[in-house]
Amino acid sequence: MTRNEAYALLTRYLKTPNLIKHSLAVEAVMRGLARHFGQDEELWGLAGLLHDIDYEWTKDEPARHSMEGADLLAREGLPEEVVYAVRVHNDIHGLPRQSLMDRALYASDPLTGLIVAGALIKPEKKLSAIDVPFLLNRFHEKSFARGASREQIKSCSEMGLSLEEFMKIGLESMQAIAKEMGL
């Protein structure tokens, strides 16, 4: 599946602009991590872009989220490693994160929320207005971006990355698509 085909599939199932922007952000971070680790950027990007494809119809039933999306992606012919990464990004299922891609998607999902929240509290409301030290300070504030699981973000250590390294890759990746995100 090409990136354009994946985007068309995503927008067939997701209609909420912020969910689409979240998907773009996770795609960007996954591509940045793939570059960092010398992995397939296209494949990792697909996992990031499509990871929440089922969210609008499963959001009220967390036990269904990511299972239905993964099943849909399998029917669409996506590679098993992408399907599995999407399936295991939702911790509720208790499935093991086996590959580097699995670990990257799991940690990247909440990181994007933390980064967006950081940009939105700045007067400029731009990704260019924040840096890693700012994000690290906000990371330790429990009341800031409550929905961004700190434990999940800290799982970047499973990839051999420090929190600072992970935030740097994530922020730079998202800054590269700031225009598409409206930030």
Characterization of this structure:
- Helix content is 63%, strand content 0%.
- With 183 residues, the protein is mainly alpha-helical.
- It has a single domain (3-181), classed as Hypothetical protein af1432 (Orthogonal Bundle).
- The longest helix has 21 residues, at 17-37.
- It is globular.
- The model has no long low-confidence stretch (mean pLDDT 97).
Compose a concise summary of this entry:
The chain has 183 residues and is an all-alpha fold.
**Order of helices and strands, N to C?**
HHHHHHHHHHH
- Poorly predicted sequence stretches spanning 5 or more consecutive residues: none
| Alpha-carbon Rg, integer | 15 Å
Q: Cα distance, first to last residue?
A: 28 Å
Tell me the major beta sheet.
none
Can you give the helix content as a percent range? 55-70%
Number of domains: 1
How many runs of DSSP E, i.e. beta strands? 0
Structural class comes to mainly alpha
In what range is the share of β-strand residues?
under 5%
- Kindly report the average pLDDT value: 97
CATH class: Mainly Alpha
Shape: globular
CATH fold category name: Hypothetical protein af1432
The CATH architecture can be named as Orthogonal Bundle
Number of helices: 11
